[in-house]
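pasting for the record
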Amino acid sequence: MRIEAARQAIQDLPITRSVLSTLRETARLHSTHYSTAIEGNRLTQEQVSKVIGEHEHFAGRERDENEVLGYYAALERVEQIAASGAPVSEAHIQALHALVMAGGRKKTNGTRYRDGQNVIRDSRTRGIVYMPPEARDVPPLMRDLAAWISTSQRESLPCPLRAGIAHYQFATIHPYYDGNGRTARLLTTLILHLGGYDLKGLYSLEEYYARDLGAYYRALSVGPSHNYYDGRATADVSAWVEYFCAGVATSFESGRRRAQEAAGTGAIDQSLALRRLDPRQRKALELFRGSAFITSREVGALFGISERAARNLLAAWVSKEFVVVADPAKKSRKYGLGLEFGGLIE
């Protein structure tokens, strides 16, 4: 009831396009910071924002920087998959993991599952905390997981329950040597988004986990044994599901409070139009806030790509009517924002 109440409240809340864009970006940065912090990332929230938004570097923190860039890129991919409405597949999961491990670099091919055992040990005592299934069992288990996610959706299992169980099972299979926790949390977000629980992108479940890591790990550690084959596969996951749903409710309520505080009186909700845009298009709106027309050079500088790649990107946007050609001159071609999206710029 708490989840549904918060969900409905945010759906009904009028939020201006600029406020919504700001709140969404804040939530993405929070998710990136907290999810990587869970795995030991040493960057602060402020540093994460500077690495992603300003491409700033911090000496001795190259690995940490790559981790946050990878997670942020994977969050953008989550939004793209959710916008397409495609059901969750193994290929999606592998693509998300590839981005997590690629440090923000473009990665089109998914990563293969581990080919050996991956024992999880206590960092202090070195005792075994969990021994996941053997590598030979990982591919069929992952196929079963992807199929179950789709089947449970058709059978109308409530989306938060589906997301929570999928998170648990992915962590149980532990299909990779590294990046399992981050990928599990991304998969959770993807399932929630596809199920209509995206809340306009205004929440961060990762923050809930990070606030009490002990509770997070205790909830995940169910079963009579640390060995997958000695009870983990058939364990009662009720305690984990209760913990997870409480986290969804808490995160949604936090997102609702932030949105209510930011919403202006009488503001018009432009979120539906904004949600039609992919992450790059949303970012390009920044250029239009400073000028009525943009060029391929400006787009290239914004995304750190070549001018030729920027021209190709703009051509694709023209076909989607996101932008229109305002000045067709080859050397000084300028683009204006499509008529349908003009309302997104104040």
